[in-house]
Write a structure and sequence with these properties.
single chain; alpha+beta; four-stranded antiparallel beta sheet; 3 helices; about 25% strand; globular; binds zinc ion
Length: about 90
């Protein structure tokens, strides 16, 4: 069976190719190394997901990012609270 974008996204995460650069209440930015070795930048800003790869439909990179993040706009958790708790755990 052919691997679809969603399956590829899961694999990109499993293979450690997705690196999250920044997450805050307004924006997510990340980079992802595609199967051909190129590095794509992607993220979430102004209520939109974006990726600079040439895909016309939702790409595997965005599926990968969405697997490990929650869009700030539709977060059901309080992101500030979550980050504060994480800081406490880390200290
Ligand atoms: Zn992409």
């Amino acid at each position: 069976m052919r691997e679809n974008a969603r399956d590829r996204g899961r694999r990109l995460v499993a293979e450690g190719r997705l690196v999250i650069r920044r997450v805050d209440e307004a924006e997510i930015t990340a980079v992802c190394r595609g199967d051909s070795g190129e590095i794509y930048r992607l993220g979430y800003r102004d209520s939109r997901w974006w990726c600079d790869c040439p895909a016309k439909t939702q790409c595997a990179h965005l599926y990968a990012l969405q697997l490990v993040t929650v869009a700030p706009g539709d977060a059901w958790v309080d992101l500030d609270d979550l980050l504060r708790r994480e800081a406490e755990v880390g200290s």
